[in-house]
Amino acid sequence: xxxxxxxxxxxxxxxxxxxxxxxxxxxxxxxxxxxxxxxxxxxxxxxxxxxxxxxxxxxxxxxxxxxxxxxxxxxxxxxxxxxxxxxxxxxxxxxxxxxxxxxxxxxxxxxxxxxxxxxxxxxxxxxxxxxxxxxxxxxxxxxxxx
Length: 146
Fold this sequence. Notes:
InterPro entries: Bact_Kbp, BON_dom, LysM, LysM_dom_sf. Residues 20-88 form the BON domain. Residues 95-144 form the LysM domain. This is Potassium binding protein Kbp. The chain is α+β, with helices and mostly antiparallel strands. It has 2 domains: 2-86, Histidine-containing Protein, Chain: A (2-Layer Sandwich); 95-144, Roll (Membrane-bound Lytic Murein Transglycosylase D, Chain A), CATH 3.10.350. 29% of the residues lie in helices and 24% in strands. It has helices at residues 25-38, 61-72, 105-113, 119-125; strands at 2-5, 42-48, 51-58, 79-86, 95-98, 141-144. The protein has a 4-stranded mixed β-sheet. The chain has a two-stranded antiparallel sheet with strand order 5-6. Helix 2 links the parallel strand 3 and strand 4 (79-86). Helix 1 (25-38) packs across helix 2 (61-72) and helix 3 (105-113) packs across helix 4. The chain is globular. The mean pLDDT is 91.
């Protein structure tokens, strides 16, 4: 289990998510995970200040990482406390990269793989969180598969 850091000022704004005492925060997060296309995984969330704690079980490392990114790439979330277990085969975790001003998937691909044409590998690894290769933003955290 680990604590992942995110850029607090970046990401989608969910109304009242981080309002102290918001009794609906957990449900809002679950709806957000479903809305970005990750279905309704067997996870539970809790908000403590600017930190989201997520527990439960998922089928794969990839699903786990995408859920963590969906929860962390929300405006106002500074960290996600990962307490998710994976029931499927154990595979190496992907690396994560924070998008900087002026970055493109091609530029990130060149930096991590040495080949700008591998950008589609990053795009596919971040579906359904990304709808188009050109729609990334500064502060967003992306999965980088091996």
